Amino acid sequence: MAEKERSTVSKEFIKEHIDGREIDLSMCSLTKVPVKELSSFSHGVVLDLSRNSLKSLPDNFATLTHLISLDLSKNSLTELPENFGSLSLLQRIDLYSNKLKGLPLSFAQLKQLKWLDLKGNLLEAELAEVAGTCVDEKECKECAQKVLKYMKEAAADAERERQKELEKQRMLKKQEAAEEERKQAEARKQRAEEKNRRKEEYKKLQALKKAQEEDIEDEEEETEEVTVEVKKRSVGKLELCCLIMTVIVMVVAIFLGFMVTYCYDSGRNRCPLLKEAMNVTGIMTYIM
Question: pTM of whole model > 0.70?
Answer without folding.
Answer: no
